[in-house]
Amino acid sequence: MKKINKIDIPHLDETVYRYTSKEGLKIHIMEKKGFSKKYAFFGTRYGSIDNSFMVDGQCHEMPHGIAHFLEHKVFEEEKGDVFEIFSGTGARSNAYTSHDSTNYLFSCTDRFYENLETLIGFVQTLNIDKDSVEKEKGIIKQEIMMYEDNPEWQAYINILKLMYSNHPVHIDIAGTVESIKEIDKEKLATCYRTFYSPKNMVVFLIGDIDRFKAIDVIEKTITEDFKKRNSRIERIVHEDLEPIVKEINKESFSIASPIFYMGIKCHQNSEIESDVLKKEIFVDIFLNSMLGKGSNLYNDLYEKGMIGKNFGYDYNYGPAYGHIIIGGESEKPEETYKLLKNAFVEFLAKNPEKEDFDRIKKKLKGESLIYLNSLEYIANAYVSAYHKGIDFFNYFKELEKFDYETYASMQKNYRIEGKTALSVVYPNDREVSL
Amino acid sequence: MFKGIEVHELSPNINLYTLKTKQFKTDSVGIFFERRLSNEEASKNAMLAAVMKRGTQKFPMSRDLYRELDNLYGAVYSSNISKYGERQIIKFQMQFPDSNYIEDKCIFEKSIGILNEIVNHPFKNGDSFSEDYFEQEKKNQILKLENRINNKMAYAFDRCIEEMYKGEPFSVNEDGDIRCLEDLDGKTLYDHYKNVLATSKIDIFIISRNDRNHYAGEILESFEFKNKKSKPIPREKHIYPLASPTFITEKMDVYQGKLVMGFRTNIPYENPLYRPLLVFNEILGGGTYSKLFQNIRERESLCYSIFSTVEKFKSALFVASGIDFDKKDKVVDLVQEEVGKMKQGFFDEEDLENAKKSIISSINSIKDSPNKIMNYYYSRILTNSYMEAEEIIKQFESIDKEMVLKAAEGIFLDTVYFLDEKGGLIEENQ
Lengths: 434, 430
Known about the structure:
The structure holds two protein chains of two kinds.
Chain A: E1 5-9, E2 14-20, E3 26-31, E4 38-44, E5 52-55, E6 58-61, H1 66-74, H2 82-87, E7 92-97, E8 102-108, H3 112-123, H4 130-148, H5 151-163, H6 185-195, E9 201-207, H7 211-221, H8 224-228, E10 233-235, E11 248-253, E12 259-265, H9 273-291, H10 296-303, E13 312-318, E14 321-329, H11 333-349, H12 354-371, H13 375-387, H14 394-401, H15 404-412, E15 420-427
Parallel strand pairs in A: 3-9, 11-15
Antiparallel strand pairs in A: 1-2, 2-3, 4-8, 4-9, 5-6, 5-10, 7-8, 12-14, 12-15, 13-14
Chain B: E1 5-11, E2 14-20, E3 26-36, H1 39-51, H2 62-71, E4 76-84, E5 87-97, H3 107-120, E6 124-125, E7 128-129, H4 131-146, H5 152-164, H6 178-182, H7 186-199, E8 201-208, H8 215-222, E9 246-252, E10 257-264, H9 274-285, H10 291-299, E11 303-311, E12 316-323, H11 328-343, H12 349-364, H13 370-382, H14 389-397, H15 401-408, E13 412-421, E14 425-429
Helix pairs in contact in B: 1-4, 9-12, 9-15, 10-11, 12-14
């Protein structure tokens, strides 16, 4: 008899089933009746920041971009390209590498269990030779060049470089045209055997699925070789203790009006889930009340043309890093930055308005219901939180509990001085003083 | 009409479509105004979508409007412009949590009330929109147009369409154009607003967990359209004589060349061969197992991204890819070679079946998202095709190789647009 844990999230009307295989592979399933599409994710906690690690007493320092390179190569199978096998059932397959994880997925409306077998099967094997590794370098070079032409991406990479110099989060996930040259078959194989192991991986399934059948298929598809992978991984974390590296960076690009990103470093120093979530909720409420469309500041900046239509803000965190990024278009990015910096200090010095707190809490609650319409959103968010050691649905539980007093005391203790940076990309014809 | 969707003719020009489904935790409402795409009107419509977001008579300031939405549990409101062939659609949409999941039991009525405010009672001064709001949005709209160059691939795509349809309404950008924007003010825009309310065909969609059919009677009162008449919008030109391709190269500071190739197919969407054409496109460049992806990316390592897509209203097929500058001729030749080989029948039963499955899977998954449901049915209404999804799927299932080859017979390359490194404009007609 298999032990499947059933976790109900009553006010959201959702249920998650959890199962752990003998070898330690986690399988999480959400049965959503009535939806046509089904999604399956198979992910490993191995991303672009995991370049230095110890395994079996040996220390490894890998070239940047290797996790992403490996993602491309895992797709290659002896019996033909995985893309081909999936498209034989009308399924769509994909994979992506983030700072802290690599995930393989498919979506389909038909022949789900067959596709599940394919997914679990191919991720467990790596078939590469020297030629195929060399050929992939051409494709990945074009992928890197595609991002080189993206001014938002460049401004984004630059803001990370202003905030971090040791922590690899500031390096492009795909690496650089130079760094990928150092990647070879042996290095790929080492990373693969280390990180593609049961205890380091998770399967997440969502859709109109039978959980018993799905677990059966997965257990039957797990190979002996996969089960044997049991390395104790020690990640070597390069912390950035200094607040920021440099405050301002300017570049020019063939664009029409400047793009800016303001970064605020806010390191997460607790590993306790509820602390991490409280901080996330605090930042969400704080950013929404200060910069949301219902705020005075947003309206003031917008009416003065200091920010444009695509203004946005986001909070991102992971192992030994955490930052808020605010930005968009602006005619006067440096002035906007100064204004924002002062506004932050002023805002934090005041007692928060209870009315604002209640309004934003309502907004966050309602927004989550809108997001939960999409199975794809749930799958992405669930898996991404999982790799950070967070239960996605606990965010909503913490949000319910989060009260005004907690918020007010967190706001009182929050400081941004010395932790902010600005990355600007100006149009080519403007003078850039460096 | 479509299974599950009820239609209510509110007036000769206004239809309400309601769908009751327990699948979503939210309710969605959309109001779509249909306009003919033209250079004279495009900028005005784009400005309407922008200015009407800014405030209503009850909520004159954007801030207060958005606070009201926050208090409605983060109700999402959007107004924007879409291009469907030579139609420009002004869309006002709202999505909000269903009362089942929150404390507010009147959220539906309140949300409809806000949408009504936005559409029928925008903030104004006398017979003009607020000049302040107008000027701010005009500036932003101009910026948006200037910023088209930020996304190099999308820019190359737009430019290919502009060149391929020079002088036709389809070449008009749905965001308007800078010269036309300069001539507008709050007063002219308000006059246009009144004209849009009076002369547009209006389609309203409600997707809800609850039965909203009683709204059929009430909706004309909730929404105070003073709609009189609308001229039917003519079908786009979609048949073109065979011509040798035009090559356009533009230069910009880019790190990677952006290639867009425009083919004409001469298969209108009313033609039974249109669905086989979609299958042709899927095999050619629809996904990761397509001919273009497998041969130009996986075999030749010439690109990371390459795909093809069909433009329904103009019967065109586009291929787009990001490549090294010096590989342009090679990739253009290879793409033509792949199209040519497919026209000669160099694809197998498996390719055909996979393509059909992929398309059928997309059709099946439309019902998973309220936005997809609205957009899909709206597009069907615009093209007067009321066939049930099941029937469409059956038609796709019955497509054979012969039909695909027949659909592909008339495909020819018309325009090759390339965004190259640095410099001015070169036009090399061959």
